[in-house]
TrEMBL record:
Source species, domain of life: Bacteria
Origin species: Pseudobutyrivibrio ruminis
Cited InterPro entries: Dabb, Dimeric_a/b-barrel
Record Pfam families: Dabb (PF07876)
TM helices/strands, residue ranges: none
Name of the protein described by the UniProt record: Stress responsive protein
SUPFAM superfamilies: Dimeric alpha+beta barrel
Domain Stress-response A/B barrel per the UniProt entry, residue ranges: 2-98
Coiled coil, from the record: none
Amino acid sequence: MVKHVILWTLKEEFSPEEKAKIKAGIKEGLEALQGKIPGLIDIKVYTEGLPSSNADLMLDSSFEDEASLKGYAVHPEHVAVADGKVRPYTASRVCLDFQV
């Protein structure tokens, strides 16, 4: 199994209210991919970090293997969520992919 974990920070220009809506949209969009992408085992977005956090939200996903992760990256439904709900609003992205 392969884990795919991403931490994002949102752009500073957004108000706390806007950030809450953006995070909800990212969570809804990404979690809706469950069952639609071959090899995707589980996908969860966490939007409420503790005050000690220095990221705004986290994606925690699991794939059958590295080939499934590569397929997810280019899958049209994932690309639509990334281009429409994630990339326009994020300032930074940190990713760690690893084998379990």
